[in-house]
Amino acid sequence: MKIAVLALQGDFDAHRKRLEELGVKVVLVKKPEQLDHVDGLVIPGGESGTFLKLLGEAGLEKLKQFVQTKPTFGTCAGAILLANEVENPKQSGLGALDIRIRRNAYGRQIDSSIREGRFVQDRRDQDSPLEMVFIRAPKIERVGPGVEVIATEGGNPVAVRQGTAMAATFHPELSPDTRMHCAFLDMVRNGH
Length: 192
Ligand code: GLN
Hints:
This protein is of the alpha/beta class.
């Protein structure tokens, strides 16, 4: 299994390390053209506006096509890029998840925090505690009918999945718990 991590900016190296720990071959990609022979993609945290600038229209288009066919996991800024509706300010993206997401939604006072949320296991109704690192995090304000919530914090959705796309508003690559990445790798193994 070969997973690409988009390495334009942000904390891509923590994802690389985590995926390698889980026995996956990782390629750091800077151009969407390099995605041709990978099984899945991770879009890391960073600044989603900067990602859009660096990708350009052609890059965004290429990424859109990839996301439609292969599993893609976005964390924080990556989650913002996957959403079909972005606020604060409005910006375009990949439109892969039917969610409304608000950038920098927690205000300056709580720029970053580590909180305990709940991880919904194995697509069943059981859940268990999960450490979550939030950094200038966005908030998911609306979840469309086809979207599955896979983690919550304070009763609100913080990780979701729909079709080939999965997103978390926190940074699972910065916590020792590997379950979020394992859930993504399961999607890659199943093809969705
Ligand atoms: N605040 C960033 C954005 O709006 C996301 C922060 C992050 O990825 N840690 O794009």
